[in-house]
Amino acid sequence: MSVFSSRAFDGHEQVVFGHDPDTGLKAVIAIHSTVLGPGVGGCRMWAYDDEAAAVTDALRLSRGMTYKNAMAGLAFGGAKAVILGDARRDKTPAMMRAFGRVVDRLAGRYITAEDVGIGTEDMAQVRRQTTHVLGLADTSGDPSPFTALGVFLGIKAALDHGKAGASAATDSLAGVTVAVQGLGHVGADLARRLHEAGAKLVVADIHQDAAARVARLTGARIADPATIHAEPVDVYAPCALGGVLNDRTIPELSARIIAGAANNQLAEPRHARELADRGILYAPDYVINAGGVINIAVEHDAAGYDAGRATARVHGISETMARIFAEATASGRTTAEVADAMAEARIAAHAASRDASAA
Ligand code: NAD
Q1: Are 260 and 288 in contact (CB under 8 A)?
Q2: Cβ count within 10 A of residue 112
Q3: Which residues line ligand 1 (CB under 6 A)?
Q4: CA distance 22 to 26
Q5: Interatomic CA distance for residues 114 and 245, integer angstroms
Q6: What pLDDT, in 10s, does the model give residues 46-83?
């Protein structure tokens, strides 16, 4: 496989392959940018089809973290780790400690946290080997409820977009139907919030027990995971894995709003234009799903972590989303283009002031 010349590489600063023969650890840590600060991004464990798929995922997710952290106004660069394997079958505490040693060798250039397949108990094992961990149970804890809150606020901002005098309009989601795809840490909590706000739900997960649990709690209708994107709903919230907005799914969408937690929802950048041309409002994934990293960043406050401060900052996602939607509508650019430009402007301004002070 090619790495440097692959499209996903996109100017990465560093890519590290971590291996531990005793525990079977095979990990890839991709550090895309440390311009704004240390590269911060979660660690995902997934049974990839092959090693090339794992590297590509790490690179794409890492780049996404650079943009996410920049848009969220954090003093963090972008990075991400992936561990190759099935989290339900292959993961062991010793493997997570081996991963911690790989992280530690990067001496703070990469700070890890949880992502798909990895929980706070795994991060506790990592913490035994390195201090470069955020989101532990005894600090800011599971970031997922904050991610879910941000997605919930982003959905409301999308529903408000274009409505006259909408500022206080969307407290109730009565009459709104939302399809939630993926009912893990984020999707299940998002479904709860949407249900409490009065929305009707359609849900799906590849694990039937997860879908049944959410349906019991929220009265949701359970759909087929293979076709939930095509359900006749107002909002489609992808909360499983990436690549769900592609040549096959986009023509089948009936939702007018796409707003969910999954990273890298667009299979390719051009799919943002296809959505816009169909009149579908897309909430850029790395903006709407930044609640978790905004929460863990509060651990770096001089005063220490505080959940109230974290919640207040996550509420900033509403305003950022509204700005992106308004600029996209006014300029004819896609919401993804507007978000990318905002993030790149912040990184460029920071690099310029750093270079000026170094001169
Ligand atoms: P999770 O592992 O807890 O949940 C993912 C769920 O999706 C699982 O229940 C899984 O069975 C299900 N799933 C997988 N493939 C599916 C498919 N094809 N159809 C339906 N369901 C499927 O992960 P999570 O922490 O809830 O994260 C969900 C998404 O949000 C991921 O893309 C993650 O990168 C992103 N994200 C999470 C956070 C966070 O704070 N946890 C923050 C930002 C972004």
Answers
A1: yes
A2: 28
A3: 115-117, 143-144, 147, 181-187, 204-207, 210, 225, 239-241, 261-263, 289, 292
A4: 11
A5: 24
A6: 999 999 999 999 999 999 999 999 999 999 999 999 99
d(CA 76, CA 174): 38
Contacts of 113 (CB under 8 A, 6+ apart): 40, 41, 42, 43, 123, 133, 134, 135, 143, 292, 293, 296
The rounded Å distance from CA 117 to ligand 1 centre is 8
SS3 77: strand
Tokens of 117: 């397949």
Tokens for 42? Answer: 């979660």
**Strand, helix or coil at 193?**
helix
**Cα–ligand 1 centroid distance for 295 (angstroms):** 18
Mean pLDDT of the residues in the chain = 95
User: What residues pair up with 25 in beta bridges, in sequence order?
Assistant: 20
Residue range 182-187: mean pLDDT, rounded: 96
DSSP for residue 79: E
Comparing CA positions, the residue from 318, 308, 310, 265 lying closest to residue 292 is: 310
Q: Out of 61, 62, 206, give the residue to mutate to test ligand 1, the one with the largest number of ligand atoms within 8 Å of its CB.
A: 206
* 91 is annotated as an active-site residue: no
Ligand 1 atom 2 nearest Cα? 116
Q: CA 148, CA 145: separation in Å to the nearest integer?
A: 5
Distance 150 CA to ligand 1 centre (A): 15
> In this predicted model, what pLDDT tens digit does every residue of 103-132 receive, in sequence order?
999 999 999 998 989 998 999 999 999 999
User: pTM above the 0.85 mark?
Assistant: yes
**3-class state of residue 190 by DSSP:** helix
* Catalytic one of 26, 68, 80, 91: 80
Quick one: tokens of 281?
A: 């409002």
DSSP letters of 319-344? HHHHHHHHHHHHH---HHHHHHHHHH
Question: What's the gap in Å between 171 CA and the centre of ligand 1?
Answer: 26
- Tokens in use for 272? 């943002």
Residue 24: what are its φ and ψ, rounded to 5°?
Answer: 85, 10
- What is the C-alpha to C-alpha distance for residues 152 and 291, in angstroms, rounded to an integer? 10
Q: How far is CA 333 from the centre of its chain?
A: 22
